[in-house]
Amino acid sequence: MSKEYIYRDITLDDENDILNISRSIWDGDDYIPLVWKKFVEDNNNFFKGIEVDKKLIGFSNMVIFNEDSAWFEGLRVLNSERGKGYGKLVSRSMMKFALEKGIKNFYFSTYYQNIESIKLHEKMNFRMIKKYKYLRKNVSDKSNCAEIIYDDFFYPEKIMNNDWVFIIPEAEDKDRFFPNPGMIRDSFKNIILFSDDFKSNDTLAINYVKIGDENEFIKLLNRLKNIARSRNKGNLSVMCETEKETSLFKREGFEGFTDEKYDVFLYYVNERDLDLRN
To answer: In terms of residue numbers, what domain contains 18?
Structure first.
């Protein structure tokens, strides 16, 4: 890669390039077209990209958790420009920018088959800290969809998620990550925290579960299906952290993309270990 480039903020004027870059991701089912304008307009986001010959060819987004921690997502490179080092350039440019902003803790997640991204970030000393199994269930049946009363949301002292974004306990203003949140629980110490999925208008995301009694937990899950229907959501999604959770949700008709035990990897690195030399 010998061409000169400009690393800059993404603007609303970049819409055609953003959509063109995203078109080849996930067989045309990339989430970026649904959220990129929010990335541009939200002050907690830094959506930046690489421009070559006056054409945007790659980008990524950084979400600020707090004054020293951030989430990185949406690393994309135009299909025709892949294999030329632009992915590394986009990612490392963002890391350098983050260091200038005082960020000391870096987080991102990726699909287990995204070998290129895994290798790229492991060379920078990112290390996997958790593994999850992503499951979904269609609940588009409109029967029994009356509104259900549920409890106020709370934040347990652990990493939570909305879709593929994992939110650390130290994150400030966590409400922004969980739109229209709620909780259902019972006397058997079962708990489900949920919110609208901010990357899919048709999905209700399960953000956290605590399973006390499995049979009673299934009753809670059926209540959640009705809540999803009452919100006109056709799907439920969950990130399972244990094999027990995966087995239970699969028994209830949730399905994954693969047969792998875990297929979503959460990565982390501290500034002391971050290596941007190569």
So the answer is: 5-103
